[in-house]
């Protein structure tokens, strides 16, 4: 029989092959060389099986755990790993006086070196992070002034009421916001002769641009770009154009920007409650 690599067999396949070899040895008294020809296993492998059968019986023919034990050769103890994971989850490096803003492999390497006196390679730190279930992620920006509890209450209580009222009146809900716009393009790469870096001419002073927009839960977007910052007059101009384009009544959800509470805006909205409400 052609020689086979026993290691490539399944666990069950190896167990059955061991049993067959041992039974052939007992019943027919075949030599190791003959058993190797019949089974395809290497003679040295067969000798090991027969030795195990003599000392441990047929129970010794079962599959034994292969490779290193779990946790062997690790640089950190399980307690140390748990402590490090806890530090990563609880806060950021600056809170424990490390010179990093976010958790990176160099930051975690410094944490391990400072607290446990073990200097790991960054590649090994990455393996530990993967084992712990951590992945590299871009942080989400959140305004410092945001009140998470108030946001949760609005989403769970106020917004369902607003949505029900809009459905009852046949109105639509839009979400409005304002942002500054920078008029230079993203830097791009292009080809040029070696040593002759192309020059992209840009103005030294930027013209202030702002965008005001509104989007519905269905993804319908209305926006306007204006020069300068958003003030009460520009906000009213946008609202006027918005109600002209949308035939239904509009409930516009906005943030706490001062412009939204301006007296002229409130006065403009006073007689238009059948068309728009903030």
Provide mean pLDDT, rounded: 85
Major beta sheet, strand line-up: 3-2-1-4-5
As residue ranges, the low-confidence spans are none
The gyration radius over C-alpha positions equals 36 Å
Q: Just give the CATH class of the largest domain.
A: Alpha Beta
What is the second-level CATH architecture of the largest domain? 2-Layer Sandwich
Multimeric status of the protein: single chain
CATH fold topology of the largest domain: Nucleotidyltransferase, domain 5
Residue share in helices?
A: 40-55%
Task: Return the string of H and E elements.
Answer: HHHHHHHEEEHEHE
β-sheet strand percentage: 5-15%
GO molecular function: nucleic acid binding
Protein name: DDE endonuclease
InterPro entries: Homeodomain-like_sf (IPR009057), InsJ-like_HTH (IPR055247), RNaseH_sf (IPR036397), Tc1-like_DDE_dom (IPR038717), Transpos_IS630-like (IPR047655), Winged_HTH_dom (IPR025959)
Domain Winged helix-turn helix: 100-157
């Amino acid at each position: 029989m052609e020689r086979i690599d026993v290691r490539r067999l399944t666990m069950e396949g190896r167990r059955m092959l061991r049993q067959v070899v041992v039974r052939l040895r007992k019943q027919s008294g075949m030599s190791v060389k003959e058993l190797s020809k019949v089974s395809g296993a290497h003679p040295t492998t067969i000798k090991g099986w027969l030795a195990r059968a003599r000392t441990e019986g047929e129970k010794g023919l079962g599959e034994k755990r292969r490779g290193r034990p779990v946790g062997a050769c690790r640089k950190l103890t399980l307690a140390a790993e748990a402590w490090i994971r806890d530090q990563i989850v609880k806060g950021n490096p600056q809170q424990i006086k490390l010179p990093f803003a976010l958790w990176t492999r160099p930051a975690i390497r410094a944490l391990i070196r400072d607290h446990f006196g073990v200097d790991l390679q960054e590649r090994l730190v990455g393996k530990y992070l993967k084992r712990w279930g951590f992945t590299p992620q871009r942080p989400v920006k959140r305004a410092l002034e945001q009140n998470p509890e108030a946001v949760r209450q609005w989403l769970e209580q106020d917004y369902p009421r607003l949505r029900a009222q809009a459905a009852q009146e046949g109105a639509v809900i839009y979400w409005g916001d304002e942002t500054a716009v920078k008029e230079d393009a993203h830097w791009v790469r292009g080809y040029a002769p070696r040593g002759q870096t192309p020059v992209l001419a840009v103005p030294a002073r930027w013209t202030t641009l702002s965008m005001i927009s509104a989007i519905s839960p269905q993804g319908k977007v209305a926006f306007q770009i204006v020069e300068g910052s958003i003030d009460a007059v520009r906000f009213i101009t946008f609202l006027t154009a918005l109600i002209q384009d949308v035939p239904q009544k509009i409930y516009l959800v906005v943030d706490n920007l001062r412009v939204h509470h301006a007296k002229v805006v409130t006065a403009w909205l006073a007689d238009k409650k059948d068309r728009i409400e903030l």
